[in-house]
Amino acid sequence: MLLSYFQNQLIEAGCDEAGRGCLAGPVFAAAVILPQDFHHPLLNDSKQIKESDRFKLRVEIEKNAIAFAVAMVDHQEIDKINILNASFLAMHRAVEKLKVQPQFLIIDGNRFKTYPNINHECIVKGDGKYFSIAAASILAKTYRDDFMHQIDEEFPVYQWKKNKGYPTQHHRQTVIEIGFSPYHRKTFRVTNPQLSIF
Hints:
With 198 residues, the chain is an alpha/beta fold. The protein is 36% helix and 16% strand. A hairpin with an 8-residue loop joins strand 1 and strand 2 (27-33).
């Protein structure tokens, strides 16, 4: 059972990102402020939910949230500042775009770069513990998937509609055979597709 909030004294936003482990495309992040009584039986960590349900949940989240925002850091920025810093930057950009200023942030994961003047708490597997982080994970994932579907039309050979830029065997094999697209992260290592990387 997911919890409605980490603390109930301050306006709280949940933050999460999607696309950290991908070979191509941006990292997306979302920040979501939900009403304290928000509840949805399907809402959970986006990785535990079917793709069709994630898009249905996105509609519900956007309809019911007090505020939400989605932001991204592209592959070129990722190559310059590394993926960890890019994830923090994407979350900062999402928080900055919120129409309501949060007073406290709950972050999925164990590390975060403090956002100016807002305290935060890092929560490992937070997207499976708190509604607002789960909601942020749904928005980050679905907006990123939309983006990958779009660029798949330019470069269908990499099958981004299927793999969303993650290092599947086919994706790695294709990179080894034909090289990077303009959307690939050049600093990410592409291992031999015969080797397991998980």
